[in-house]
Design brief:
Blueprint lengths: L1 H8 L21 H29 L9 H10 L1
Helix pairs in contact: 2-3
């Protein structure tokens, strides 16, 4: 969309921006919602890694929280 706006104007001014980004050009037209989703995912990943570190420190690597090796690999790789 921004590229089409540049073509419509046709004139080039050195040092001046040709188009201005708008909210409606962003995903779903709502950049605040997407920013909230990004923050939410980052918080979930940080919480998952913190819980993994806490349960490993508190209960050891052989506890029921880390019953299978696949679970440990998935938790660390997803975090």
């Amino acid at each position: 969309m921004m590229g089409l706006r540049i073509q419509e104007r046709g004139d080039v001014v050195k040092g001046a921006p040709l188009v201005q980004p708008d909210d409606h050009l962003f995903w779903f037209g709502s950049p605040r919602f997407m920013l909230f989703l990004i923050h939410f995912v980052l918080f979930q990943n940080a919480f998952q890694l913190a819980f993994f570190a806490f349960s490993t420190y508190q209960f050891g690597i052989d506890s029921c929280f880390h019953h299978r090796t696949e679970d440990i690999v998935i938790r660390i790789s997803m975090g």
